[in-house]
Amino acid sequence: MTTTKPAEKAATSAKVAAAFGDAGESVRQVSTALTASGRAYVEGIVALGRAFGGFGRETATEVGRHVKATVNARNLREVAELQAAWAQNRVETATAQTKEFVDLARDRSEEVIAPLASLLRQDRAA
């Protein structure tokens, strides 16, 4: 049977306590990062929903103006010109809205990833 000296027991206890302390800090950091990431995710989804809703309202307003202009057209040629202008406008507007939506999604995704990426960089530095 082996006997452990009191100094060895104290050193072992100190190492175990330090390991648990480090683990507790790591758990706290991961929890904080996940919470921040989750909040950023929810805020991002809300922002994307608002942007999408804004695009819908804008399109509905444009459709209303286009229908009114079409009904008030004086002849078939004017209707054709309105249709051509409407199609060009819709393509340009949809392109701009898509770019805006993608940029917003990218920015919000980076905000979601940032807390976790920071935690990983911190872990690599240690």
Which radius of gyration do the C-alpha atoms yield? 30 Å
Structural class: mainly alpha
Along the chain, the helix and strand elements come as: HH
Residue stretches low in confidence (pLDDT < 50, at least 5 long) are none
- Beta content comes to under 5%
User: In angstroms, what separates the terminal alpha carbons?
Assistant: 40 Å
Number of helical runs? 2
The count of DSSP E runs of length 2 or more, i.e. the number of strands, is 0
Query: Percentage of helical residues?
Result: over 70%
Largest sheet features: none
Which descriptor suits the 3D outline? Answer: rod-shaped
Please tell me the overall pLDDT: 88
Compact overview of the structure:
The chain is mostly helical. The protein contains 2 helices and no strands.
Secondary structure topology:
Elements: H1 6-71, H2 76-125
